Amino acid sequence: MFFNVYTKLAVSIITAALLAGCGESSADKPAAPAARADSSVLQTSLLHQRLPASCFVNDSDNLAFCMPGDTLIYEPNPEKEHQASVNQVIGGFCDTARPLTIHGSSVICSFRQNRTYNANPVNQQAIVASNLQTGADYLAQTAKIPGIKTIAPGIYVLYLQQAPKEAPAVTNDAAVQIETKLLTPELRVHSYMLNDLLTLDSLAQGNPFALVLPTLKKGDVVRVYIDYRNYPNVWNVDSSLQGMPYIWEVKILDVKDQATAAELQQRRQQAQPAAAEK
Predict the structure, then answer these.
(1) DSSP letter (8 states) at residue 169
(2) Hey, how many other C-beta atoms are within 10 angstroms of the C-beta on 157?
(3) What is the Cα–Cα distance from 170 to 168, expressed in whole angstroms?
């Protein structure tokens, strides 16, 4: 019985569909959509999507017209005067991180136009002046870092790790064992001192750490940004960094009383000759 009921229902549905289809004329049917043109055909060709190319140069005046990433093939015309030397081409137009070939006065390399300058006192003054402006902009952004503190004009402290409240604090009559790293503006390590022991009265006059250390406790790890304009020439850094902020990461390893520290230093000094004899 159930089979007959479902069969009659299916037949009625199919019949209704056929009658509806017969009632439609071809004119009533919507036209098939036209084939869409490939949109990329209508786009402007982009230069950076070009195939890799070789750039042949036989007059060094035209070197700058090669495209980055292309293979530069430089063969200077001996009949032309004042052609760039091999070193000038490599320094100014070769990606030295990639292989290059030198044959006489000819060079083959991956083209990359480089920033070049002459290392002389005039340029050094210009670099420092530029660094001072760059450093000012850098510190203006640094001052906006959430949680950063200004403890004195030109000194900003950012806690990377904070010691417990009960941790011993650095005081004027204490000796401090610290780990310090001088960083570049990109926060790469420039130089460092590990397990260094000092007292506040041993710091040179005008050293900004005389203001920084008394704010810290054993276990604190901080990054300290110091404005070069407030503390010029306090530390020796690469000439190219002069004028930029000093950036230090400081970890307070231990806080000792000065008597204990003096005894520890004496033991270290006595141990050094003994180690050298061995």
Answers:
(1) B
(2) 22
(3) 7
Q: What is the pLDDT of residue 11?
A: 39
Which among 137, 120, 131, 122 is positioned nearest to 240, based on CA atoms?
131
| CA dist., res. 96 & res. 116, Å (int) | 14
Sign of torsion, CA 27 30 32 33? positive
Q: Assign residue 143 a region (left: φ > 0; alpha: ψ between -120 and 50; beta: otherwise).
A: alpha
Dihedral in degrees, nearest 10, Cα atoms 253, 254, 260, 263: 0
Is 231 in contact with 177 (CB distance < 8 Å)?
A: no
Q: In what order do the strands lie in the sheet with 54-57?
A: 54-57, 71-74, 106-110, 101-103
Nearest in space to 197 (alpha carbons), one of 111, 268, 105, 92? 268
b/e code 204-242 from CB counts within 10 Å (16+ = b): eeeebbbbbbeebbbbbbbbbbbbbeebeeeeebeeebb
Q: Decide: 245 and 230 in contact? Cβ < 8 Å.
A: no
Indicate if the pLDDT at residue 278 is higher than 60.
Answer: no
Rounded CA separation 107/89 (Å)? 8
The predicted pLDDT at position 37 comes to 53
**Cα distances (Å, whole numbers) of residue 269 to 60, 201, 263:** 61, 20, 10
Residue 195 has pLDDT above 50, yes or no: yes
Is residue 2 very low, low, confident or very high in pLDDT (cuts 50, 70, 90)?
Answer: very low
Given a contact cutoff of 8 angstroms between Cβ atoms, the answer to whether 212 and 156 are in contact is no
Q: How far apart are CA 215 and CA 157, in angstroms?
A: 10
CA 254/CA 262 separation, integer angstroms: 14
Q: Which pLDDT band, with edges at 50, 70 and 90, does 151 fall under?
A: very high
